[in-house]
Design goal:
By secondary structure, the chain is of the alpha/beta class. It has one domain: NADP-dependent oxidoreductase domain (TIM Barrel, Alpha-Beta Barrel), CATH 3.20.20. The protein is built from 7 helices and 4 strands. Helix 2 packs parallel to helix 3 and helix 5 crosses helix 6.
């Protein structure tokens, strides 16, 4: 019943190339994967330089096993990593996230890297990820996001983040 079997049938018949869904919580992904066969899914608010453990340890392996690619939505935590005074679209910024932001910012500054640039490149690094949706309100922000993806970040930056346990040891980093 519902759209999922029809979408799968349409894909199998070649009417559409693929189908997917977008969710805000890992539990919703796990449940949807148990009952469907998508090609892609949008993971909003689930993978960022600040918060990525569950995606690396459970979500990405599950998607990889099923051959499902991921689009990362809100890799800047709803603007927080771009300087907005909110976290994941909430005005309340959790203390641990602010502390981690400050620590990553310190390492980024030491290496001459903008934290937003590092965050965007970090979000795109896993092989499971086919694309990211950083969000932008202006043409200037779009241009800045594109420019961020062209910056070469030294491997020493990523190594220091890992050695200080600011990103997971198993986190893929940009090549």
């Amino acid at each position: 019943k519902g759209a999922i079997p029809e979408l799968t049938k349409m894909r199998d018949e070649g009417i559409i190339k693929g189908w997917g869904f977008g969710v805000n919580t890992p539990h919703a992904i796990y449940k949807a994967l148990d009952m469907s066969d998508p090609d892609i899914c949008l993971l909003a608010l689930q993978y960022s330089i600040l918060d990525h453990k569950q995606a690396l340890d459970k979500t990405f392996p599950m998607l990889d096993k099923r051959g499902v690619s991921a689009v990362i939505g809100a890799p800047l935590n709803g603007g927080f990593l771009a300087g907005r005074n909110r976290f994941n679209y909430s005005p309340k910024i959790p203390g641990p996230m602010q502390q981690k932001f400050n620590a990553i910012s310190e390492v980024a500054s030491k290496h001459g890297i903008d934290i937003k640039t590092a965050a965007l490149q970090f979000a795109e690094a896993p092989s499971t990820v086919s694309s990211i949706i950083p969000g932008a309100r202006t043409a200037e922000q779009i241009k800045a996001n594109v420019a961020s993806m062209k910056v070469t970040i030294p491997s020493e930056f990523w190594s220091e983040l890992k050695s200080k346990q600011l990103i997971a040891e198993n986190a893929p980093i940009p090549a």
